[in-house]
């Protein structure tokens, strides 16, 4: 009979393999376009390149240690390695939250009509992308500095000093005062909720904007050439799907972690499942982006060419 550890190990291996290949291809695409085809470069490329880097670090610090554990390598980290692993994982995961939120907000600005209240922000926004990156890097580096203090390598799995494990072999200790742990959890939750709120606002705006435009131009399309067939709309739908994917796996992961936090009984399999859900978004997001990028040659050809929308519609909806 196949053991659960072998199943988990193989699952993490394929998750990491798919994620590393997908994110690497996407990153190479953006680098190639930047240096070899600058005429095809888009402001969104820089944001997505940053997202792929955050995803790769998240996969490395989450998936690789889990694979090693599932295949029998126990307690191979000392305290220094544990602290570094947990800190980089938390920072990368925080950057993934911030960058996914920026992707959603930036796409909402891109498709906003030129006569909207966001017109001036839409023009200036590409100039401040790097400023945003500096801000989120500094903010996440400071927010998760307490992870270095509180994380340590496991030596005895039955040690009652440990409240919960975020990896099988890396734990957060409750040896410090309880209010420190509560403050950390509150700060991390507040940090994530802010960016989830911004994602929700921008996603709702995009859905309403697409719905309004579809009603305005519905009469000019035949049944074979719907509004969904245009790359401008497909790009926005991809971003909405990306955000949905992120929120789904984020809350699946966090709900399990919250359960483990307040449950003193150690559940290794549930911790491993939470880790797997935590790696699903970094592994799957590049596949969504690769499939929707019109600059990547496709293996199929679609006969005919859809009718282009009117000029006023194009002013509102442009590709990423």
Automatic annotation (TrEMBL):
Membrane-related topology note: Multi-pass membrane protein
GO-annotated cellular components: plasma membrane
Which InterPro entries does the UniProt entry name for this protein? GPCR_Rhodpsn_7TM (IPR017452), Vmron_rcpt_1 (IPR004072)
Which parts of the sequence belong to the G-protein coupled receptors family 1 profile domain?
22-289
Q: Name one GO biological process term.
A: sensory perception of chemical stimulus
Listed Pfam families: V1R (PF03402)
**Does the keyword Ribonucleoprotein feature in the UniProt annotation?**
no
Q: Which UniProt keywords apply?
A: Cell membrane, G-protein coupled receptor, Glycoprotein, Membrane, Pheromone response, Receptor, Transducer, Transmembrane, Transmembrane helix
UniProt feature coiled coil, ranges: none
Transmembrane regions = 6-33, 129-148, 193-211, 238-260, 272-290
The reply to whether Transmembrane figures as a keyword in the UniProt entry is yes
Instruction: Spell out the subcellular localization from the entry.
Output: Cell membrane
The GO terms this record gives for MF are:
pheromone receptor activity
Purpose of the protein: Putative pheromone receptor.
Family membership noted in the UniProt record: Belongs to the G-protein coupled receptor 1 family.
Q: What is this protein called?
A: Vomeronasal type-1 receptor
């Amino acid at each position: 009979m196949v053991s659960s550890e072998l199943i988990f190990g193989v699952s993490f291996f394929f998750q990491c393999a798919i994620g590393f290949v997908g994110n690497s291809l996407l990153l190479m695409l953006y680098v190639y376009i930047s240096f070899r085809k600058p005429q095809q470069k888009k402001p969104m490329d820089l944001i997505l390149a940053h997202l792929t880097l955050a995803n790769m670090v998240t996969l490395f610090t989450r998936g690789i240690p889990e694979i090693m554990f599932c295949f029998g390598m126990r307690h191979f980290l000392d305290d220094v390695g544990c602290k570094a692993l947990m800190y980089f994982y938390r920072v990368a995961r925080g950057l993934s939250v911030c960058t996914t939120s920026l992707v959603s907000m930036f796409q909402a600005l891109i498709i906003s009509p030129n006569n909207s209240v966001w017109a001036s922000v839409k023009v200036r926004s590409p100039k401040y992308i790097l400023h945003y990156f500096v801000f989120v890097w500094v903010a996440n580096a400071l927010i998760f500095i307490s992870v270095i203090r509180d994380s340590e390598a496991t030596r005895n799995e039955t040690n009652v000093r440990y409240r919960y494990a975020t990896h099988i072999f890396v734990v957060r200790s409750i040896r410090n005062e309880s209010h420190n742990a509560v403050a950390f959890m509150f700060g991390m939750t507040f940090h994530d909720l802010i960016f989830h709120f911004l994602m929700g606002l921008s996603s709702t705006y995009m859905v309403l904007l697409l719905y309004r435009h579809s009603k305005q131009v519905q009469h000019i399309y035949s049944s074979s050439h719907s509004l969904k067939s245009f790359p401008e709309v497909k790009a926005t739908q991809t971003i909405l799907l990306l955000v949905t994917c992120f929120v789904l796996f984020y809350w699946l992961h966090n709900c399990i972690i919250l359960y483990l936090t307040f449950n003193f009984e150690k559940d290794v399999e549930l911790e491993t499942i939470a880790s797997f859900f935590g790696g699903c978004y970094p592994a799957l997001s590049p596949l969504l982006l690769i499939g929707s990028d019109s600059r990547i040659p496709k293996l199929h050809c679609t006969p005919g060419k859809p009718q282009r929308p009117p000029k006023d519609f194009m002013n509102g909806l442009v590709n990423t």
